[in-house]
Amino acid sequence: MSKLLLVLHLLAVVIGLGPVMVASSMFPSVLRRALAGDDPAGARGALGVLGRICRVYAVVSLAVPVFGFGLASMHGGLGKPWLIASIVLTVLAAGVLVFLLPAQQSALDALGGDGAAAEPAPGAPAAEGALAGVPASATATVPAAPGRLAMLAGIFNLLWVVVAVLMVVRP
């Protein structure tokens, strides 16, 4: 039973966390491309897919700690310091994801439904310093979004790398 739980735990990591880690890392660069106006419809479509991958596989990745707790309880290791550190880091990673997913969705919403950033009404003057095609009301939040999303994705991925190291090294 222990080997089955280990296999399920590892499959949950690869199948559940892998896509979230990759898609969340790709999202900021595609968002930058969309904001720059390079193929906004294609970039919006790609952002939609990446955001959906993150949301769906975040739910799938809930199996990782479930199987992990099962393994730890079978082996009587719930009190080991490296496992406690892994649990804390997993909770932190989940907390980062709680901020990352809504930030991705708000970036998608700011781009508008047709793949391009919403444009000001005809005849309305463009705001000074605004991004091309992005309304003045959105420029306060959208330009910073790619950097913030990249930071959140990096922190999320780094936390999981540290957890992986702790699982292998078991200090």
| Alpha plus pi helix count | 6
Described by strand count, sense and barrel closure, the largest sheet is: none
From the spread of the alpha carbons, the general shape counts as elongated
Number of domains: 1
Q: What's the total count of β strands?
A: 0
Note poorly predicted spans.
114-144
User: What portion of residues belong to β-strands?
Assistant: under 5%
> Helix proportion of residues, in percent?
over 70%
Radius of gyration: 20 Å
Q: What average pLDDT do the residues reach?
A: 83
Order of helical and strand elements: HHHHHH
Structural class comes to: mainly alpha
CA-CA gap between termini: 25 Å
Descriptive terms for the model:
mainly alpha
Briefly, what is this?
It contains 6 helices and no strands. The protein has helices at 2-36, 40-60, 63-75, 81-111, 136-139, 145-169.
Overview of this structure, please?
With 171 residues, this protein is mainly α. The chain has one domain (2-114, 136-169). The protein is built from 6 helices and no strands. It has helices spanning 2-36, 40-60, 63-75, 81-111, 136-139, 145-169. α1 (2-36) runs antiparallel to α6.
Topology overview:
Blueprint: H1 2-36, H2 40-60, H3 63-75, H4 81-111, H5 136-139, H6 145-169
Helix pairs in contact: 1-2, 1-3, 1-4, 1-6, 2-4, 4-6
